Amino acid sequence: MRGRGILAGTLAAALMAWGGAALAADTATSHTTPTSHAKAEKYMIMHGEITAVQPDSVTLKEAGKGNELFKATMNDKTWIHEGKAKKGVNDLKVGERVAVRYNYDQATQANMADSIRILQKAPKA
Known about the structure:
Layout: H1 2-32, E1 44-54, E2 57-62, E3 69-73, E4 79-82, E5 85-87, E6 97-105, E7 110-120
């Protein structure tokens, strides 16, 4: 009697595992199906020191990259902040350390800044 209970339990576990694997495979394929109405945006973050500020862009010397420069385009949707305090383009100064959250815009072939966070103020001259 004891052997039949172990066999039945093993069989039940195997069937549940097989059914779970099939369900997981169905779930995985449903997530990889592209949808035409949703466009996923991939954001990256660049840290560096501001070398130039224009009304529509900011240029950084990339942290840890020597003298490599990175330019990000800003628009009216770019959120500039220091901590929780909202700032504007006029608050960005050469020499400040910032983190720029951006994505590459295929249409304009530019790095579009989503947000700019001021990490460290520029040293006073």
